[in-house]
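Q: Structure tokens for this one, please.
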Amino acid sequence: MPFQQTKRPLRILGSSGSAQDRRRLVAAAVKNHKNDPFDVLVGDWMSEANMTFNATKHHKGEGIAYEKTFISALEDVLPEIAEHGIKIAANAGSSDTKGLYDALLALVKEKNDLERRGWENLGLPIAEIDHSGQVIITKTRGSNGLVSVNTCKSQLLYEIQGPRYYNSDVTAYLEGVKFEELGPDRVLLSGIHGGPPPATTKVGITGKEAYHAEMVFWLVGLDIETKARMLEAQIREELGNRVKNLSLLEFTLNGVAAEDAQDQASATVGFRVVAQSLENEYLSPPNFLEPILETTMEFYPGGTFHMDVRTALPREVHEYFVTKFPQSRISHCWIVHSRSGYKGSNANVGFYIRHDDEYEWLRALLTVEKIQQLLAKEYNGGRIERLELPNIGAVHFLLYDHLDRGVSCTTTLNFLGKNVGEYLRSKFVDIPVAFLDSGKI
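A: Here is the predicted structure, written as tokens:
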């Protein structure tokens, strides 16, 4: 009889989803290692926003071009990391990986070779991967929050951009993905298999800086759209020929004034004037802020602008382009949940149901044409790809170029794409009465 060895699963702690994630939880998890052990700490401190900013700083030689929050997350628990033999895999180098390495090395040396010196407070995720490849998703013990089939569906649909998830060294095939609840805060993930890496790899390119300025006005009560048209016409008149020097000039209403409002805030709508230019001078106060303020004495009734006009001063923005390089050269609604996100200028949005009997209705409803209809004025004519994931009751869409030119340069409020799903969920559709008997989400 061959020798058999029982191996415990490898426990991987997901410690960070962005540079803004709660760094204190990293230290808390490390310090609680004896009660809730893990083997590997992984984290992503990067996003298209800080990759873009750091690329610019690196190009200009101005300041630190790696993600400093990675260092601050670890510096107080380096001794414990060494004591427990915790391995770390992090994406935090941004545009200066060598700089991050040097900074971490200096920190270790400074510490004298690692010598000691509800709905809130949600726990960090843990993936348990055993020797057979089985994956169980859980979270740190004793923490708040929830790990369930629905929360796992939500996170998956947030990230993917089609049936395959491409990495530089492997491709994950997602069509068969399935989640199964094993118990409180324990979900089995199955149905994903791997394959060879793609022939190409995605590359993000930061463009030369441009300049952005904006002003906000408050419109109150009745005739909001008429007031907005009046203000736009007045501003265009005052800007005159300066408009020719702008690469973009947008006027947008944000919100809807409540009818018979019980307080003034409920009757107030924001009106944004957004401009961009390739040259700083064209958005300087004499060319943007001052001409707009000169309309003050002819404003719409109740005309008021935001007191903080610093946003009307030009600031740098950077276009972010996504392209491919050859790999050989370099790497919806009461009853439906949704999750959306972004990659570059593309938005991805997934919808998933609560009960299995709702899926056929969902997949029949959500066609590409239906998504275009639900997007309404938000649809810009771009290509839309559709993906069905029947094992998790989900339908996923990839909206190409839906988010303008990337997170740091877009003029929309929804710069991360996270509200596309909530917007589409809010649209009216016909729902079978039988499904409503189960209640509202």
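A few notes: The longest strand covers residues 200-220. Residues 10-145 form one domain.
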